[in-house]
Amino acid sequence: MNQKIDRWRERRKQMILDRSGQFEVLSDSYLDRFAGIAAYPYNPDFKVQATISTTAGDTAELTRVKSLGIPQVYEDVARISFELEGKTYNSVLLSEGSGYLLTFSDLTVDQENIPKNYSPRFLYIPMLGSATEIFIDFNLAYLPPCAFSDRFNCPLPPSSNRYLTAISAGERTVLYTESTSQAERLPDSSLTSCS
Questions:
Q1: What is the rounded distance in angstroms from the CA atom of residue 30 to the CA atom of residue 186?
Q2: 3-state secondary structure of 21
Q3: pTM for the complete prediction?
Q4: Are the beta carbons of 91 and 77 closer than 8 angstroms?
Q5: Of 116, 139, 110, nearest to 40 (Cα)?
Q6: Is the dihedral of CA 100, 148, 137, 162 positive or negative?
Q7: How remote is the C-alpha of 29 from its chain's centroid?
Q8: Residue 171 above 90 pLDDT?
Q9: Which of 11, 35, 110, 134 has the greatest number of beta carbons closer than 10 A?
C-alpha cells in the first residue's frame, strides 16, 4: 500500500462528509446514503512518464454533461503525451488553478458495469515550473463532482482522452449504505441543477 495515496483518499472522503468546498451542495439525504468511495489498490504501473507541451492560443472543444452535445471551446489548453500498456496517448489538458486537469475515460467502465455518469474521471497535474517531462500518477485519479451531484456540469473527455485500456488505478465508484435501493444509487438530484 502507498500511505500517501491512502491519506489522500481519506481526505477526499472527509471533504464530502464535511461538505467542504464544492461539496457544500450535497443534501442530508444524500450523505445519509453515502458510504465512501471505492478505489483500486495502489498500482505503481500506473505512474507513467509524460511530456507536456503548450502552444500560445491553443484551444480544444469539449462537451459538458448537460450541454446537450454542444461543444464548448476551452482556451489555454495544453497537450500531454504518455505511453500506457504499449499504447501512446496524446491528450488534451485543461487549465486548472496552478496546473492542469486531465479528464479521461477508459475501459474499466465497460468491464466493471460502472454507471455511465461515473465514466469520466479526473486527474489533477500540478505544473512544476517550466518542466515538460513529468510523471503522472493515475493512482490519484478521482471521480468528478458530477458523480456525487447532478448540480455539477462536468467536462466530458474528448476523443483523444478516451483510452483503449483499463486504468485500474484511482477512485472507481461511489459506495452507498446497504439499505440504499438501486434507484437511490445515483448522484444527488435534490437540488435544482445549474449549468
A1: 9
A2: helix
A3: 0.84
A4: no
A5: 139
A6: negative
A7: 24
A8: yes
A9: 134
Contact between 51 and 132 (Cβ < 8 Å): yes
CA distance 142 to 123: 6
Tell me the three cell numbers of residue 13.
472522503
Residues whose CB falls within 8 Å of the CB of residue 113, separated by 6 or more in sequence, listed in order? none
The 10 Å Cβ neighbour count of residue 98 is 7
Residue of 46, 33, 49 whose CA lies nearest to 135: 49
Q: What is the pLDDT of residues 13-35, one digit of tens each?
A: 999 999 988 888 888 888 888 88
DSSP element (H, E) containing 82:
strand 78-84
Query: At 38, which amino acid appears?
Result: A
With cell 485519479, the residue in question is: 141
Residue 46 has a CB neighbour count (10 Å cut-off) of 19
Alpha helices for the chain (secondary structure H): 3-18, 28-33, 108-111
Beta bridge partners of 89: 82
Q: CA Rg, the chain, in Å?
A: 17
The structural domains of the chain, with segments of one domain joined by +, span 3-176
| Exposure string over 117-146, b if 16+ CB within 10 A, otherwise e | bbbbbbbebebeeeeeebebbbbbbbbbbb
Which DSSP letter does residue 149 get? B
In terms of phi and psi (left: phi > 0; alpha: psi -120 to 50; beta: otherwise), the region of 5 is alpha
Q: Could you give the percent of the chain with pLDDT greater than 90?
A: 32
